[in-house]
From TrEMBL:
This is ABC transporter permease. GO terms for cellular component: plasma membrane. Pfam families: FtsX, MacB_PCD. InterPro entries: ABC3_permease_C (IPR003838), MacB_PCD (IPR025857), Macrolide_Exporter_MacB (IPR050250). It comes from the Bacteria. The chain crosses the membrane at residues 21-41, 312-334, 355-388, 400-420.
Amino acid sequence: MFAYYLQLGLRSLRKNPLLTALMVMAIGCGVAASMTTYSVFRATSNNPIPHKSSQLFVPQIDNWGPEDAAQNKGEPPSAMSYTDAINLMRDHRGKRQTVLYPVDLSVVPQDPGMLPFRQNSYAWYADTFAMFDIPFLYGGGWTAGDDEAHAAVAVIGRELNEKMFHGANSVGREINLNGRSYRITGVIDTWKPEPTFFDPVNTNGFDDASEVFIPFTRAVELKIGSNGNNNCNKDPGPGWDSWIHSECVWLQYWTELPSTADAEAYRQYLNGYSAEQQRAGRFHWAPNVRLRNVTEWLDYQKVVPQEAKVSLLVSVGFLLICLVNTVGLLLAKFMKRAPEIGVRRALGASRKEIYMQFLIEAGAIGLAGGVLGLLLTGLGMLGVTLVFEPDIAKLATLDTSLVLLTLLVSVLSTVVAAFYPTWRAAQVQPAWQLKSN
């Protein structure tokens, strides 16, 4: 019966091509607008490490005091000072932990015909690779012993390995960074979490993939400055040592806490640590700490752009308007066929069969609207840069899941919109139609 009803529906659509085209265009435009903005919202609100997001935490410690916290609605600074970071690393209360910051490194090629070039680079601890489940193409990360020894070792990304070593296994070879030689311990396979959860403070959640990683201890020993934010509540004084031992905040700290009990114990530890700093005379205020997991941290940092939320709401509203128009067009189309419905009912067709026929016809309109919506969505991807920043706009992609979702939304929304017109059509009284004709 499905094939029969579909045949009836398609035949009906061909009888009034202008009305059918209007409905298909309305559905297609509404679906395209909503799916284009949804693709951006989906990318920006994505959970970048879903299997561990509830186990990875960012601690925050208020080392500036209530006056500065009041300007930030009582929240501690989003970054950490060198003093606090090193103290937390020393106490080692988490399963794994790391301090990290973006460093300004230039790669110096061995080929004299190539000029030095910069790469997104980070300094962090050995625990980071296992903590963030970073995949390796060759080798692996350096060891905790390398951290302690301030070793001249590095991990590079797949793209840089292709550029420098033509994709060969470069583990054990040397790479020149800022004029110094580093031994490569591993090559990371493609790793570009979106959003960039491990450092949204410096990247706003979206950045190109990082290709160079060196030990934090090595970077500090060589006095390699931060390539990210550096916030100070007062003048730290001249020189490197004055800066890193000041209350300036410029470091991100992450720790892995596998269970809820571990997280609660760590939160108590942070309060105890702050109270200890207060007793030592460094802090002159009550402990003010926070502990947020990945999703909470991204939400706190407002990684999802406000324009993405607003655009999604506007586009969904536009889709609803298109559906309301479709309801009116379907109602006019179905009620115009009242004599046909009356004859079918008189010949024994039940209301259920009328429902089936007209809902299948609406589904066919929705499918056609979905196909048009896919074409318009593809065009919409090209215009996303007019609304969003380039780093965000490039995340909008028309992949298989979005194609299927577009078709599904189009068909389902059209079928839902057809319920009222179909109900009205099913109420047609056969006797009245037969008498009037």
